[in-house]
Every structure is written in structure tokens, then in C-alpha cells.
Design a protein that fits this description.
The complex is a heterodimer. Chain A is built from 11 helices and 9 strands. Chain A is globular. In chain A, the strands form 2 sheets. Chain A has a 7-stranded mixed sheet, with helices on both faces. In chain A, strands 6-8 form a two-stranded parallel sheet. Chain A is of the alpha/beta class. The relative contact order of chain A is 0.11. Chain A has one domain: Alpha-Beta Complex (2-enoyl-CoA Hydratase, Chain A, domain 1), CATH 3.90.226.10. In chain A, helix 2 runs parallel beside helix 4. Chain B has a domain of 210 residues: 2-enoyl-CoA Hydratase, Chain A, domain 1. By secondary structure, chain B is of the alpha/beta class. Chain B is built from 12 helices and 7 strands. Chain B is globular. Chain B has a 7-stranded mixed sheet, sandwiched between helices.
Chain lengths: 247, 315
């Protein structure tokens, strides 16, 4: 689906969402009940660099500053972080983390945040946007990937065919929406044949402040160990407290 | 067993293993590990790739004391799979941060866990053999750092290992309350080799060591405000710097993030047009910028600690 189609489907009641010539999305849409939802995002698959982070983060901070509980939708179609020497030189890691922190702050202030993956996404740009929301959903055809298989083949020194074969039995490394859903990163894959606005309302109802992605990954058998290990650590840390208190 | 204490304090952080760093950083004998190697909490995925697993999956977590005060700690072993975030290694850090968050927030009824977490980062980012699980673990770590900070926990990143802090580790560092870096510590998103492979050697010549250090190295990070303290590459160097930054950390709130927005926007407009690091340092007002490279710690710290951009609570 194109961005225009997505926006039309999400906001039949209207919106003022704009995409800058560089591909940064900002604005507001009208929900089914007439209330506003803030929108940010990256369009056209452009890479996300320092300059792109600033208007998006500013929009999010504006929502938090205004108060209330206006939710925030993050639309994601980006090839990944901007790979350039100058970007690294001025500290791209801080810019990307800043955007993630702004979204997490909004969540703590009671603004539900939903990410919608409708195109590409990868690596650092994925962490700064979609993966910093309360709940991430995807449209079929979206192609999120931490890294593409050819690059992965190069780094792991395994033939691409072998990786493709492995991907059939484990979702833990292979690119794709389905695999990310199995690991718990993507809460739900939307049905493009159904009205998107209704699916958005459902996603907002399901989005919560608590991070349940590891539990989801365990239930869906895509991430068998994470939730259990995190729980074991908490038990060990607090058990340690018991011993110290007893001693 | 009894090593000379002074020698140990002067040992290189860069060269050390995760466990040696913990020994050199914390008060002697104060460390207790959670889920240690004996419990064999290891990656269930590496065998698929015919790769050996490690009994701690390359992350050591636990609690101890630093200068008499309690701390929780996670240390990445950069010499195992590049210190990468895998499903298990990532979940160990997530669990530690959640324990700190819950204790500080009264959520699990425990209020005597330390209010400080040290992250000894030494990581190339996400472990590609477990890419989805690793990426998600970083996202969970970042969220847990923020939640812990909001509950009043200080989270400090220490960066000075061979794998640096790249990809998800670079983003994790910048999510913390404070960052300590050594000259050898490198922080970034895409590593120089990755940029060279994808964009060509004319974009970034990864074999040019001086260029690499000037872009992602600790001195540049400290000068532009991407790190809050500069440590000598020794156990005592990181210990002293960690003690100092724990004294005062910025809260995680709207005011801090608005200040960070202004800081990063200001940096982009001021330094965004520079072509190299020396050019940036000149704009920052450093008198003889080419001399920064060979400056010793005292001279460098003297300059960095007086620089407006380098000293802030906007993180």
C-alpha cells in the first residue's frame, strides 16, 4: 500500500499529515470518535539521519508538552539509518536514541504509541521508531529486516541458500514481517481488506505501557528463552536481596 | 591469587575481559553474579550455525559495591561473538534493568536493590545469527533503561572495549543517564567497515585508523558532548570516572528531553557542515585542534571539562 492509501484508510474523517520533500512525516489525523491522533514517520524508504530525527522528535515532544492523552502513530518505511561518515562524526547514535526516548517518554505520560510498518525498516532506524512504540503492527508486504540475507551471509560466512533453509525452521534471524511477529516484535499483522481505521482503534486499545514482547515471543515460539531468562534474573536479583536481609 | 593491587588498578580496560573489568572496577570481593556460568544459561540458537555457545552467553550480570555504594552491573564480553546482543545475552541485561526498575518503583516490594546500574558495553551490536531476537532485546533494553531512569535509577554506560559500542549498543549508550568513554572507546551506529562495504571507500576508509578514531573515538565523543566523562584506559580510570558521574545524573523527564532536543539541534546546525573532526573541534573553540589527537589525559580533560557542548544534563 502507498502512504496515501494508508492515510486515507486510517483517517476517513480527515487528516493534515504532511510528508516533507526529504520524507519526514508529521501531522495529525482524526480518529473515529473525532479526537486527534498525532502522526510521525518516515516515507519513501529514505534512510533516517540526524536531520530527519529532529522534526519527528520535536513533534512528539510537542504532544507531551500539550498534555492530555493524544495517542501517537509512527509510520515506518525506511531503508535504515543513514550510513555516512559525517553522520557518525556528529553522533548519529545520540540522535536515534533521542527519538526513541521521546516516544518512550510520551508513553510514560499516558500517550499510547503505535508503530505501523508499511514498507521497509532496518537496524538502528527500526530501534529509533517502530520498536520504541507500545505496540507495533504491520501491513502485509512490509519488509522489515535487521539485515538482508546477502549481507548476513557475508558476515556469518554461511551460504545464502543455507540461511534460506535455516529460516524455514527458525524465525530468530530471518528477515520478514512473519518472523518478527513470531519473535513478538510485531503484535499483529493487519488485514488490508478490512477498514484500517477500525484496526487502528483496536491496536490503540491493545497498546499498553508494559513491555510484553518477550512473553509474546515465548507464546508464539519465536523467542523461546528471552522471557524466561529475564524472569530468572529478576528472581536472582531479589533473592539475593532476601539473603542479604537475612544475613 | 593476591595480585599487586596497584598493578591491577593500572591494567588496561581495553585489553581486559568482562570479568577482569568487573574485578578492577568494583570494590574488591564485592561482586555476586546472577545466573553465572554454572547455571549454563546459554544461547539456544548458535548450534544451528555450528558455532560454540558460552555458558554465560557473553554477558556477566550481578551486584556489588563501588566506593562502598551498591550497584547492579552488566558486562559484555567483547571477545565472545563481538559482545553482541543475542536472545539470552540481551535478556540478561533486560532482566537486570527490570529488577532495578521494579525495586526503585516499589513494584516487587523490594526496596534494597541498588539505585544504580552500570552497563560495561563492549559490543558490535546485534548478533546476526539471532538478528530478530537481538534487535528486539536492544529495544527491550532501551525501554527498560528509560523505565528504570524514570523511577530514579542512575544508568551509566562505560565504553572502552575492543568491540566499542556500535549499532544497538551505541543507541543503548545514548539512552543511559551518563556515558563514560576512554580514548580507545568507540561509539557509533554503523561501524566504519559497514559504511565502507555499503557506501564505498571514498565515503569512509575503514583502514585509515587515524580517521576512524577521529570520527568514532572517545575524544571526539567527549568533545561534542556524546560522552560525559573521559577515563584513562585503566581499571582505576574507569572506576574513578564512574564514581564521579554517579554523583549527579539527569532525571528522565520532559525537561531533560527538551534540553536534549535543543542540544542536538544546536549541534547539527553548528557542526553539521564540518567535513572532518578537526574542523568540528575548531568550531567548538579549541585553540589548536590538531593537537587534540596526541594530547595526554590531563591536558585533554582540562580542555573537555571547560567546553560548553561537552558538559550538560541534556541526556
Amino acid at each position: 500500500m502507498t502512504l496515501d492509501e494508508v492515510l486515507k484508510g486510517l483517517f476517513p474523517g480527515g487528516h493534515d499529515v504532511k510528508t516533507s520533500k526529504d520524507g519526514w512525516i508529521t501531522g495529525h489525523g482524526k480518529r473515529r470518535d473525532g479526537g486527534p491522533i498525532a502522526v510521525i514517520g518516515v516515507a519513501n524508504g529514505v534512510p533516517l539521519g540526524a536531520a530527519g530525527v529532529l522534526p519527528l522528535a520535536e513533534h512528539v515532544l510537542g504532544v507531551v508538552e500539550k498534555g492530555g492523552d493524544t495517542p501517537i502513530l509512527v509510520l515506518v518505511d525506511t531503508e535504515g539509518q543513514l550510513m555516512a561518515r559525517r553522520e557518525e562524526m556528529i553522533g548519529l547514535n545520540e540522535y536515534l536514541a533521542h527519538l526513541a526516548k521521546c516516544l518512550l517518554l510520551a508513553s510514560q505520560h499516558g500517550h499510547r504509541t503505535v508503530g505501523l510498518e508499511y514498507g521497509r525498516a532496518s537496524a538502528g532506524a527500526f530501534l529509533a521508531t517502530a520498536l520504541a512504540t507500545d505496540s507495533l503492527v504491520g501491513l502485509p508486504g512490509a519488509e522489515p529486516a535487521v539485515m538482508d540475507l546477502p549481507s548476513m551471509a557475508r558476515v556469518t560466512k554461511l551460504p545464502e541458500d543455507k540461511l534460506k533453509e535455516l529460516a524455514k525452521t527458525t524465525p530468530v534471524f530471518a528477515p520478514g514481517l512473519d518472523h518478527l511477529a513470531q519473535t513478538g516484535a510485531v503484535a499483529e499483522i493487519w488485514d488490508p481488506a478490512k477498514p484500517l481505521d477500525g484496526q487502528l482503534e483496536a491496536a490503540l486499545r491493545n497498546a499498553g505501557q508494559k513491555d510484553v514482547r518477550d512473553q509474546l515471543g515465548a507464546e508464539r515460539k519465536g523467542r523461546p528463552a528471552a522471557a524466561k531468562v529475564a524472569r530468572q534474573v529478576i528472581a536472582a536479583a531479589t533473592g539475593q536481596t532476601h539473603d542479604a536481609a537475612a544475613a | 591469587m593476591m595480585e599487586d593491587t596497584a598493578t591491577r588498578a593500572q591494567a588496561s580496560w581495553f585489553q581486559a575481559t568482562a570479568r577482569q573489568r568487573i574485578d578492577g572496577l568494583l570494590d574488591p570481593g564485592s561482586f555476586t553474579e546472577f545466573l553465572g556460568p554454572a547455571e549454563r544459561v546459554q544461547s539456544p540458537h548458535l548450534a544451528l550455525f555450528d558455532l560454540p555457545a558460552a555458558f554465560d552467553d557473553g554477558v556477566v550480570i550481578g551486584r556489588g559495591t563501588l566506593d562502598g555504594k551498591g550497584v547492579l552491573l552488566a558486562a559484555q564480553e567483547g571477545q565472545f561473538m563481538g559482545g553482541t546482543f543475542g536472545e539470552v545475552s540481551g535478556a540478561k541485561i533486560v532482566g537486570l534493568l527490570r529488577a532495578a526498575r521494579d525495586a526503585a518503583g516499589g513494584g516487587n516490594g523490594k526496596d534494597d536493590l541498588p539505585r544504580a546500574v552500570l552497563l560495561l558495553l563492549d559490543s558490535g551490536g546485534v548478533r546476526l545469527q539471532e538478528a530478530n531476537a537481538g534487535e528486539l532485546a536492544v529495544a527491550e533494553v532501551m525501554r527498560a533503561v528509560v523505565e528504570a531512569r524514570s523511577n530514579g535509577v542512575a544508568v551509566v554506560a562505560l565504553v572502552g572495549g575492543k568491540s566499542g559500542a556500535f549499532g544497538g549498543a551505541g543507541l543503548t549508550a545514548a539512552t543511559c543517564s551518563r556515558i563514560v568513554v576512554s580514548e580507545e572507546g568507540r561509539i557509533g551506529v554503523s561501524g566504519p567497515e559497514v559504511i565502507e562495504t555499503n557506501k564505498g571507500v571514498e565515503e569512509f576508509d575503514a583502514a585509515n585508523k587515524a580517521l576512524v578514531w577521529s570520527v568514532v573515538g572517545g575524544k571526539n565523543r567527549r568533545l561534542i558532548g556524546g560522552a560525559d566523562a573521559f577515563a584513562a584506559d585503566t581499571m582505576s580510570g574507569f572506576r574513578e570516572a564512574a564514581i564521579a558521574v554517579l554523583g549527579k545524573v539527569p532525571p528522565f523527564d520532559l525537561k531533560t528531553l527538551k534540553a536534549e532536543q535543543a542540544r542536538l539541534a544546536g549541534r547539527h546546525s553548528k557542526l553539521g557542515g564540518c567535513d572532518d573532526a578537526v574542523g568540528m573541534w575548531k568550531v567548538l573553540g579549541i585553540k589548536n585542534p590538531p593537537a587534540v589527537r596526541d594530547m595526554d589525559e590531563d591536558a585533554f580533560t582540562g580542555i573537555a571539562d571547560r567546553l560548553k557542548e561537552a558538559n550538560h544534563d541534556a541526556r
